[in-house]
């Protein structure tokens, strides 16, 4: 799915022109150069300065601009769990295990990085911890973007299921 | 009960962290449990009655963001005890050993690949950074004098250092392609 992006010029980051870089966009297979907002499928950053900069500044961690769909099982279940109600990490882990009848167990590292990725992409947000509960545990809630992502994933899964079922039915007849 | 601290030596390299885990687990099965990790050695305590499974996690940036406690709490909720950190970027966790169980921090391929990529990226940063420092040092040395007795050892050290980071970068790349193939 193509997405809209803005090009960051070195000046806008408060950097000297030394960091000037070139960005090329591939649109439907054609290679072109542009520095205005553009729809693109893939992008290549050329120039050591910018590559180094990307590394050092830690931007686009885990591909901030990259599409998150299709969701992995872990991402999907985390979002579905938060769709039901805001929760903390431990609650999500238990919830997912229950929803999948024990099949999907999300490890601590997987959950921690997934929560950070979802926060960065704006699919979930921090949620104020209700008074009287354990304030040590950070809580999370799904955002509208998160709900949209779940809906999109569900229709994709539905399509897959339908296609499979149709074939099964046609063979039985 | 008397707790003795013992030292064990091993060259711990980031791209072989799974081998380090295996080493720690092996020692733990012999009653030696890691207390403090280091680059060349680790401090262990002896307790024959316990056995743990160790896991290492690469998570940089806590010094900057100050979210270390939140991170430790989440892992603790999942049953992991925080042991120690190495340089604030590698974090050591452990849980009581259970027969026939291999608990993992990263339970799916996608998140494990993301973890490997982060380690690989660190190698890349170190490589670029040291390359820059190396070039600046060389310019300095070559422009100012012709002291080859200094230049040759400096080149030697940097070639070793850069080679090490390059090796780590390639090694992580291989791990990633092995998973995603």
Helix-strand layout with pairing:
The complex is a heterodimer of chains A (173) and B (181).
Chain A: E1 3-5, E2 22-27, E3 30-33, E4 38-40, E5 42-46, H1 48-57, H2 73-84, E6 87-88, H3 89-99, H4 108-120, E7 124-127, E8 139-142, H5 144-172
Antiparallel strand pairs in A: 1-4, 2-3, 2-5, 6-8, 7-8
Chain B: E1 5-9, H1 17-29, E2 32-37, E3 41-46, E4 52-58, H2 62-65, H3 68-77, E5 81-86, E6 90-96, H4 109-144, H5 148-180
Helix pairs in contact in B: 4-5
The strands making up the biggest β-sheet of chain B line up spatially as 1-3-2
Q: CATH top level of the largest domain in chain A? A: Mainly Alpha
Q: Give the helix tally of chain B.
A: 5
Low-confidence stretches of chain B: none
Order of helices and strands of chain B: EHEEEHHEEHH
| Residue share in β-strands of chain A | 15-25%
Q: Could you characterize what this model shows?
A:
The complex is a heterodimer of chains A (173) and B (181). Chain A has 173 residues and is of the alpha+beta class. Chain A folds into two domains: 3-57, no CATH class; 73-172, Winged helix-like DNA-binding domain superfamily/Winged helix DNA-binding domain (Arc Repressor Mutant, subunit A, Orthogonal Bundle), CATH 1.10.10. Helices cover 43% and strands 18% of the residues of chain A. Chain A contains five helices and eight strands. In chain A, the strands form three sheets. In chain A, strands 3-2-5 form a three-stranded antiparallel β-sheet. The longest helix of chain A is centred in the C-terminal third of the chain and has 29 residues, at 144-172. Chain A is elongated, with a radius of gyration of 21 Å. By secondary structure, chain B is of the alpha+beta class. Chain B has two domains: 5-96, no CATH class; 109-180. In chain B, the strands form two sheets. Chain B has a three-stranded antiparallel β-sheet. In chain B, helix 4 (109-144) packs antiparallel against helix 5 (148-180). The longest helix of chain B is centred in the last third of the chain and has 36 residues, at 109-144. Chain B is globular, with a radius of gyration of 20 Å. Chain B starts with a strand and ends with a helix. In chain B, 22% of the residues are buried. The chains are: A alpha+beta (173), B alpha+beta (181). The A-B interface holds A 48, 51-52, 55-56, 58, 62, 72-74, 88-90, 93, 105-114, 136-138 and B 55, 57, 59, 61, 70-71, 73-75, 77-78, 80, 93, 103-108, 110-111, 114-115, 117, 121, 124-125, 128.
